[in-house]
């Protein structure tokens, strides 16, 4: 059964105004205030779990919370869909755009980057030089591959002994990327490794959390949560720069990042049979 968009204001969360379709659904003593699982840690704190509503809701299909999305989503798929919905809005991840209420559907609109961050916008593939990376220490790029945007974060630790690279997508497809490393002087040798592209999540993938200057309450690895710091590098490929320079016999290394959509498992199987 489908929930229709227009009616049912009383099926919506009193805090975020989304449908009550993420568990646990909590209700006030008098039943007038309802809260969805997205808002579990937000005020007001409600103590009654509405298991009756949850058991009915679990059998329904809901419209997506994002404008322009026509998908109908079943209860268990709601959070997964909302995080990867190509219609979702994200806030500009750059520091100087914070708190300006700048948000956009990045899958169809990169005009903000064209006007405000043109130096960070690249096409097809990204080539970085190690000298440049260690000079800049920490930066972000938006890479467009066949009109699909990817966010790339690069961050040096221990003054450049280690370079971290994170690549993020914004849709429900699965991608991986290849980093090819070679000398800027000769091409006798190169190193290649393959890494996974992660679905971008504002609360986890923040360049300023990596730099330890972010204070946002909503960011999992911000300064507010010292206990979480040990986990914050897990979404990044780690490159030991000294080791890489020795293997490639060079003073400066070039990194070439190429992103590809991952063939699904079925396609891989059938091609290996042939
Ligand atoms: Zn809510
Ligand atoms: Zn959609
Ligand atoms: Zn959607
Ligand atoms: Zn911006
Ligand atoms: Zn942050």
UniProtKB/TrEMBL annotation:
GO MF: ubiquitin conjugating enzyme binding; ubiquitin protein ligase activity
Cellular compartments per GO CC: cytoplasm
GO biological process: one example: proteasome-mediated ubiquitin-dependent protein catabolic process
Gene3D superfamilies, sorted: Zinc/RING finger domain, C3HC4 (zinc finger)
Protein name in UniProt: Uncharacterized protein
Taxonomic lineage: Eukaryota, Metazoa, Ecdysozoa, Arthropoda, Hexapoda
